[in-house]
Design a protein that fits this description.
The structure is a single chain. This protein is an alpha/beta fold. The protein folds into two domains: about 140 residues, Periplasmic binding protein-like II (D-Maltodextrin-Binding Protein, domain 2, 3-Layer(aba) Sandwich), CATH 3.40.190.10; about 90 residues, Periplasmic binding protein-like II (D-Maltodextrin-Binding Protein, domain 2), CATH 3.40.190. It has nine helices and twelve strands. A five-stranded mixed β-sheet has the order 4-1-5-12-6. It has a five-stranded mixed β-sheet with strand order 9-8-10-7-11, sandwiched between helices. It has a two-stranded antiparallel sheet with strand order 2-3. Helix 2 packs antiparallel against helix 9. The longest helix is centred in the N-terminal third of the chain and has 21 residues. It starts with a helix and ends with a helix. About 40% of the residues are buried. The structure holds arginine (ARG). Arginine binds next to loops.
Length: about 270
Amino acid sequence: MSITKKTRLFALVAALAMVLAACGSDSGSGSTTTTGSSGDLELKKPGTLVVCTDVPYPPMEFVQDGDYTGFDIELMRAIAEDLGLTMEVAEPGWEAITGGLAFETDCDVAASSITITDERKENVDFSDPYFEAEQSLLVKEGSGISDLADMAGKKLAVQTGTTGHFYARDNGPEGIEIVEFQDADGPLLAMEAGQVDGFMTDLVVTQDFVNSHEGFEVVATYPTDEVYGLAVKKDGAPNLLAALNASLKKLRDNGTYDRIYNEWFGN
Ligand code: ARG
């Protein structure tokens, strides 16, 4: 066998070994992916998926005993594992996420109950939808408020730049006082302290609050047909986006999505 033939054969065997390694389902190691995505995942740090989120937004993303958890976080943990990546979490702030700035610095992907909107699509690219949402109005029990229309002359808390904020701004009655907070902790603390009369945000969050706090109720829901997407850098991460979508589909098909869903929301 000539030298060149030997070299070619060696190259062929090496290539085959790499293909086999990539096909293996060893999810914990290295940079192999099991989702069939090809190419560089455009990660900030090779081998690590930096997931950006805005906490607290329980039960979707929050810190418990010093660790990030919640539906979004556990879903991302499963996606990172599927992609053979180590997950890290960062908190660049809500408006840096939806405005796209976060992807210039820390973040590979954001998972933060982000409603897919046309406006946001100008700043970030979204994955396929992975969760459905609607708006809701949280008030103190016995407040006499039963709808947004009853909030004239009253204080409604919102997280700045969220769909709840926009919904209240566009549909609230004349004389409503919208009180803005930078994160979702502010409205919940203000509700508990009796400093505001209501909080408008996604039902999944107000419902969780009612379940874990005495004396509050969700008096109205508003079917806004919202769906959440994972966000990545606008026009900057096509391979990562394809890998995230492939992984989401795989986790839905193999029951992992449902298992995580049931852990957080029951059947
Ligand atoms: N779904 C709403 C939106 O996209 C609220 C999301 C707020 N998320 C958060 N982690 N605070 O505007």
